[in-house]
């Protein structure tokens, strides 16, 4: 009986340890404008991935609160780092902006 309860607890724990599921969202990028997308949280720091058919997949990795680097997969299966650092927008916390390149990335 004790082994059965332990195995059941382990199975439940492992079910929560898997990768986060993508959730429907609305995204915006400077190049593509607004479009429906899938949003997947990557960690507790706020890193995330957004993807949509026919659009690049963007991965934003938080370096420290309010600052991040962004990577893009343009359909090749290979992520390419976008130049510069992105800062969380003061006007909209769902957006990240690159002051050097004027690129903006949002997910609501």
What does this 3D model show about the protein?
With 108 residues, the protein is mainly beta. It has one domain. Helices cover 15% and strands 44% of the residues. Strands 1-2-3-4-5-7-8-9 form an 8-stranded antiparallel β-barrel. The longest helix has 16 residues. The N terminus is likely disordered.
Overall 3D geometry? globular
User: What's the rounded overall pLDDT mean?
Assistant: 87
Name the strands of the widest sheet in spatial order. Answer: 1-2-3-4-5-7-8-9
Number of helices: 1
Query: Helix-strand pattern, N to C?
Result: HEEEEEEEEE
Instruction: Give the proportion of residues in helices.
Output: 10-25%
The Cα radius of gyration reads: 17 Å
SS class: mainly beta
- Tally of DSSP β-strands: 9
- Give the strand content: 35-45%
| Overall tally of structural domains | 1
* Main beta-sheet annotation: 8 strands, antiparallel, barrel
Q: Report the end-to-end length measured between terminal Cα atoms.
A: 46 Å
Low-confidence stretches: 1-18
Keywords summarizing the entry:
about 110 residues; disordered N terminus
What is the topology?
Elements: H1 2-17, E1 23-29, E2 33-41, E3 48-51, E4 57-64, E5 67-73, E6 80-81, E7 86-88, E8 95-97, E9 104-107
Antiparallel strand pairs: 1-2, 1-9, 2-3, 3-4, 4-5, 5-6, 5-7, 7-8, 8-9
């Amino acid at each position: 009986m004790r082994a059965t309860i332990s195995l059941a607890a382990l199975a439940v724990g492992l079910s929560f340890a898997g990768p986060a599921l993508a959730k429907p969202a609305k995204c915006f990028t400077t190049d593509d404008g607004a479009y429906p997308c899938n949003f997947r949280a990557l960690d507790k720091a706020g890193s995330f991935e957004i993807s949509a058919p026919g659009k690049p997949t963007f991965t934003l990795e938080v370096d420290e609160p309010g600052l991040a680097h962004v990577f893009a997969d343009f359909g090749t299966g290979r992520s390419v780092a976008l130049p510069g650092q992105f800062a969380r927008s003061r006007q909209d916390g769902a957006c990240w902006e690159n002051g050097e390149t004027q690129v903006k990335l949002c997910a609501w």
